[in-house]
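F.,

This is the one I mentioned.
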């Protein structure tokens, strides 16, 4: 098994995902809304088979559920234990290579990772779509947006980040290391306090899963933020929103219930900003779709004024 795929057969990892109530409840509600009686459904990256079982309970006539890891064997046992073997067929293999004998009405997949794309499953979901979805078929999620917001987060910056180097340590000056650490572009997954957000988040990109290609997971643009208060801009955070159905949005941002994804935090060169003034931020966001990579990654470049920093989100 590929090193990249091994963790997804880990029951502890599966438990962390299933126990994420905002995530699991959102998918359950959306599947109940979207699945129509008699639908044929494909679940990509089924894990424990939980979404496939949601679909069967919602009235799907047939559910194909595929996973590339040995968790497929666990899913088979769970489907049987829940009395759904007549509706659900578990497949052990790569979704990107799957070509079913019939087209499906709906593809469901929880393929989302940090900054939406880090799990590296997008290519498999889109390949499965191109091979198996009917011309009138639907996708769940149907759309995914990646957002960014500026922060005034003094604790993360000054205590756990590069701002610490500005303090004298036993009469020694380490201040030059602040810029060195900033240039390394480190990120962390952490819950960002809503009070730290200086301006409402704005979308870096949006994908429509019915029509998107892997190459569409790239965006270069200029965003204008209007701070809601005076403060010190010293970081940014990134998160995603997934439109699961017409009435269900899975929002992983700072103002929504906490999920296992939290937000991606990035320190940035500090600057004072004023409420109501325009802060121009240049953004270059790209997802590495190299199928030979063990782990996928997102590259993000942010610029404010003369300062520009690059980050790797993994």
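My design for it:
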């Amino acid at each position: 098994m590929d090193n990249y795929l091994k963790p997804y057969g880990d029951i502890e990892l599966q438990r962390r995902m299933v126990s994420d109530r905002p995530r699991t409840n959102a998918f359950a509600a959306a599947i109940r809304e979207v699945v129509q009686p008699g639908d044929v459904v494909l679940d990509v990256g089924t894990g424990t088979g939980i979404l496939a079982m949601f679909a069967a309970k919602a009235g799907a006539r047939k559910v194909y559920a595929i996973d590339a890891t040995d968790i497929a064997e666990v899913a088979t046992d769970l489907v049987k234990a829940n009395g759904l073997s007549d509706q659900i067929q578990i497949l052990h293999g790569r979704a990107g290579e799957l070509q079913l004998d019939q087209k499906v009405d709906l593809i469901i997949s929880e393929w989302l990772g940090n900054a939406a794309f880090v799990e590296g499953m997008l290519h498999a979901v889109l390949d499965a779509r191109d091979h198996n979805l009917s011309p009138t078929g639907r996708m769940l999620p149907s759309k995914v947006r990646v957002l960014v917001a500026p922060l005034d987060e003094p604790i993360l910056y000054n205590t756990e980040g590069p701002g610490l180097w500005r303090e004298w340590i036993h009469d020694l000056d380490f201040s030059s290391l602040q810029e060195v650490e900033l240039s390394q572009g480190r990120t962390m997954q952490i819950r960002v306090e809503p009070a730290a957000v200086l301006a409402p988040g704005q979308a870096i990109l949006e994908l429509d899963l019915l029509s998107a290609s892997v190459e569409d997971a790239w965006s270069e643009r200029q965003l204008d933020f209007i701070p809601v208060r005076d403060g010190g801009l010293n970081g940014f955070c990134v998160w995603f929103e997934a439109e699961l159905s017409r009435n269900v949005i899975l929002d992983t941002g700072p103002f929504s219930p906490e999920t296992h994804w939290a937000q991606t935090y990035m320190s940035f060169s500090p600057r004072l900003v004023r409420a109501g003034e325009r802060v121009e931020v240049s953004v270059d966001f790209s997802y590495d779709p190299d199928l030979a990579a063990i782990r996928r990654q997102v590259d993000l470049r942010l610029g404010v004024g003369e300062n520009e920093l690059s980050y790797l989100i993994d």
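Helices lie at 11-18, 21-34, 50-57, 71-81, 122-132, 154-158, 177-183.

Talk soon.
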